[in-house]
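Help wanted!
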Amino acid sequence: MRTADKHSKIIDAAIKVFSRKGFYNARISDIAKEAQVADGTIYLYFNNKYDILISLFEEEIGKIILEVKLLIEQENDPRQMLRLFALHHLKLMEEKRELAEVLQMELRQCNKFMREYRNTKFIEYVDIISAIVKKGKEMGMFRESVLPGVFKRAFFGALDETARLWVLSPNHSYTIEEAAAQISAIFLEGILEER
Amino acid sequence: MRTADKHSKIIDAAIKVFSRKGFYNARISDIAKEAQVADGTIYLYFNNKYDILISLFEEEIGKIILEVKLLIEQENDPRQMLRLFALHHLKLMEEKRELAEVLQMELRQCNKFMREYRNTKFIEYVDIISAIVKKGKEMGMFRESVLPGVFKRAFFGALDETARLWVLSPNHSYTIEEAAAQISAIFLEGILEER
Amino acid sequence: MRTADKHSKIIDAAIKVFSRKGFYNARISDIAKEAQVADGTIYLYFNNKYDILISLFEEEIGKIILEVKLLIEQENDPRQMLRLFALHHLKLMEEKRELAEVLQMELRQCNKFMREYRNTKFIEYVDIISAIVKKGKEMGMFRESVLPGVFKRAFFGALDETARLWVLSPNHSYTIEEAAAQISAIFLEGILEER
Amino acid sequence: MRTADKHSKIIDAAIKVFSRKGFYNARISDIAKEAQVADGTIYLYFNNKYDILISLFEEEIGKIILEVKLLIEQENDPRQMLRLFALHHLKLMEEKRELAEVLQMELRQCNKFMREYRNTKFIEYVDIISAIVKKGKEMGMFRESVLPGVFKRAFFGALDETARLWVLSPNHSYTIEEAAAQISAIFLEGILEER
DNA sequence: GATGAATGAGCTTTCATTCAT
DNA sequence: GATGAATGAAAGCTCATTCAT
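Answered by r_m:
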């Protein structure tokens, strides 16, 4: 088997196992069994358990960033870009439910004891949002008063929390598309009744 | 020392220690030392390590809910209520930074291996938001189309993510009050330039 | 059980186990079983496996130094002192065969990867020999040309190697007393036939 | 590369690595890297890790025995033979410091868990000393009372311990030749002042 | 013969929890 | 109620050895 295969087999297995048990409760042997390799093999590809998590994060976020950027590029209207971002984010979290759980976990808990790890990939992802806002402001489409740095966090947080609960609860009273549309609408137009 | 004192001394110690090291890296003996009690004493008040976290969560969220409800009650305007909620949430996270970190951590990571734990306190807290929205809709102040269940998650997520990064990064280009005002404004009025 | 008991029970167990299997092949659980304590208990008294070896070494050599100094003190004749030292050393190695094996092991192998550990206790022990030589020289009883620093090593080495093989081989053609007497005689008078 | 070359390349590498890290801390991959062969290649020439040590020992001691015997043969005076032996031993340990460390290590620690290994090569080496003593006794040059079996151990031990410390400490107050001369002198003439 | 990726048994150490005092 | 010494299960990681190429 080629090296590339083993690496991604382990990453895939780790996503499954971390998502199922959480990082701390996941045992290396669980990942090894899931990846159908020996425990020791994992250490040929990763330095330690935490390194698996970091690698997983960087690689998977990396793929997502590429996808989203490609998607957004095809649009010119910043409003549409935000709508696309929201939809893509939520759909992704639904489609890759296990990955979603792991990413969310890492964003919180593991920064905890590894504060030194500058999460550049995540920042890059969220900065896609602020870039859209800046563009919208330049085009005179978004208010001058909107702070892109605040907006990006609020927007990402709204999507992320929505995805989190979507993933946790088994049945939903609305579709993912409806949720995405609703959230984009709120951020674009607010909730105030037109006067 | 009265029993109630020991209980809350342990909770306070746990907040400090969990916030500093994370739940999994925190040792019972760390908490015991911080609380100035013996390791064994902790087991007179809590069933196990996880029980400390759950208790901590329920009690502290309980206090916050009381506070917020009291604050909100004094207002009649749903717009103002949302602004107050946002400000209160962010200020709280800033003032009780250690507690904030623990709550955020638990909301993600620990649900993980304890999915059976129905987080009713958290739901109660977030439902304050949807109640405001419902009231606003009834008063004809918020759009009919706004789904309170979607809005509450989006609004809470926006605040939570903002708080998370606020707590992590050492210096900020705006105040907590500005961030709260901006987020409330976005959710109320959107970001679109008036036509 | 009192703390002092556990500490020395573990040391005694470690002597047995190290002597039987060698330091590297000894498992902590072997020592724990021999000492009739739990594995974890060992870590209440020692930092790690190597710390057991060092502690063992320092404590046991310490006892031996006290004994020998006491014994030597009662003599005035440096020749007799050397004879006593030799006899005491060999008898000790025979009586405490397991300890002997461990001490010999550590003197070689473990200096290896712990060259930074300045083996002061061992130096103190061997310096008893050079002190005797110096005294003998002052009294005009030993040749001026004898270098105490060379002599102490040669004398200790002779005893140590004799003890090593004594301990290894099951049957002997002479007693430990004869060996001690012979070695002392060689070092004092040489092996040359009187002319 | 011829087979013989690989074999000795591995032995040479093992001497370096064992000397640097000790037998137990040396990894097969360290030796392989040092010998510039693959890990697996080592198992074409040796059965296992311990086999490398044994082979190394036998081969190197074998060479030394040949050398010493050749050297000694050219002498007729047993006193001179002992002096030569001492000088040769110490010089060897100084010249081949890495080998010296490995040999000393094995004499203690590793016999430990492999007591079944009858160290015939080592016995052969030490028996050179007892042969000299026997010859000296036959020639009436050494005392009748000297036991060759005791003497050989004492003499070897004296040299070995001297070499051990010589190798360990970085600076010396006398030359290797002086040490050898002094030790020979002690064993031949003792340390007592002539009456 | 040579390689080195893969294996998996094995061991030190940690730490939540217990319980005799 | 309070203590903290003792417990022992559990798991991350290493590395000698194998074997398909």
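OP: Thanks! One thing I noticed: Residues 27-29, 39-40, 43, 48-49 of chain B lie near DNA strand E (CB under 10 Å from a C1').
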